[in-house]
């Protein structure tokens, strides 16, 4: 068999490949030749073949078939074979392969070899991939080599001991006697590895940490010698003596001095010397200074030393290197809570970092700027941060706006300043603010009674300038609806009042309704604001026309609002002033951050909040009952339905046209009923009987019936008669599903003619299981005082196999016993 090509030739050949496929073909061809050589037990070229295999492994190609060949090379007596064998073991083997255990005896023999370089190979391999079993077996040999006088072996043995401790922590005490003597070594390599070993032991064992604290003076002495020593070409890096060893010692001092007064006191002086004597013109010096700062901040250092450390970070901020500036900002952000005043001295430099071109530096500078805000500098810092908000990238606007809101709420010097600041944010970055910003600002404005005229005037001006920022438009619409009379009357004292007519205000709000920039939520705000102005302005006829136009809007939510508001102008006009009066002062919830509105007025969606506000004046009983019929006029009986939480509130409007030829147009509409909180609707039939309807319901022998059976969905009705009031029929629906897929988002709705009253209770679930494996039940109560034949129209909506399904049906075949 011809001699295999050398490693150098293989590398040259692979580099000539023009495509990945060509390179792969070369590798496969060479792997085949190497396998053949392995099968023939060719000892002559085994070392060369394994070396080539390692090169292929580094290129990312599989080389596991060479694992056993590595073990054969390790067992060889030739140093060149051992070197490649151990290198292959470190690259191709780890503790997950059982074959690595076969090396244990070879490593043990090589640890006791007469040649230090063979011993070094064995120590490197054990420290790189030794498993816990191997570490237990060979820890004694490693501990012996730690005590040898050969510095070449001692430094390798110290690093190998670190690996042993990580794998088998209980062997730590074995290395304790040898470790004490390592710090007296003059060789920097041994010193470096011994500090690494001490650090590992202190981090893993509190007992070791307490034991080694007495070594602090010795470590301080070593560090002082490094600083004061003259030029040493062997250890010099950019004019600094062995910076790697200095950094390691500083990290160990940080661990030893943490939460310990005596150790901290012993290292204060040397830390001050390092901080003042280290050259900062090169990156090497900056690395040492950074470790010094971290050590000063972690130990119980003197206040003057901490100020010195923060000043070092302040100098870092002026460095041209972006990495150093980023490190300084990150470190200041960690220390700002404990040394706030010292960091404040560098506030101007930190604010300048907001103008940096690097996005990561800008983000850290923004976070640190918000951390520096307090009651004394709130005005200046907000000015800078608002300027940053104007010019920053979109990715920063949301976090910056949120930070401004938090800082303004916590440190606002006055309510006017607070309102102006929030409005400035909404004007600048309204599209990026959090969802709770609108209700929070509305609450702030509501509670600032003396600022109502000023606020509504400012917001009206903002609307004239720009209607693209939807949160700003929503707040402005709400305020104009609440305080439009103050705007028209020109009662603003804080600034020169503007002359505005009622028609001009209505023109602006109507413009929002038709603007393409307005979202459906914004249109809801605007329509509700126009409705509220019907009690504040004299242009009632114009408002009636606008409201009636949107009664046929394609937007269901807007249409429902318009229909409900139109009903207020008709049957319930006498209640309109009480329903649309100004909102009361809103209570706060305790919060760490933005103030939230207590949800006593329903949802935070603006028009819903307003429409659901209960009038403070106590209404007569007859008017309270009228409110329950608010949508119906003279021809409709309302249906109050308790829906499950997963159903959106706006779904109530779907019953508006449900009844069709039953001469009904009303349905469950939670939004306009002020006396009906959304959480627990009042019992519709309260007052009709002195006993609760939930008790004493007895079966009356009424036969059940199937009301609907289509597309696999079957609705059965069972009947009971309420004992306290025989005019009340209790109907329980049972919905079952015979298809193979479950029906989700299931909603059952019903309506009856005006001579009846009906109440729907909550369903047992909104998912109808497949294959009739379960049913959804829901209770309906119907009051039939005139004993007329029962008729009902039902509406079913659900999602089946990813498609939304909706169907209407009329039920007229109720058994006579259910209504007679």
From TrEMBL:
Residues 597-619 are annotated as: Disordered. It is a peripheral membrane protein. Residues 597-607 have a biased composition (Polar residues). It comes from the Eukaryota. GO terms for biological process: intracellular protein transport; vesicle-mediated transport. SMART domains: Alpha_adaptinC2. SUPFAM superfamilies: ARM repeat, Clathrin adaptor appendage domain. PROSITE patterns: GAE. Signal peptide: none annotated. PANTHER family: ADAPTIN, ALPHA/GAMMA/EPSILON. This is AP-1 complex subunit gamma. It comes from Poecilia mexicana. The lineage of its organism: Eukaryota, Metazoa, Chordata, Craniata, Vertebrata.
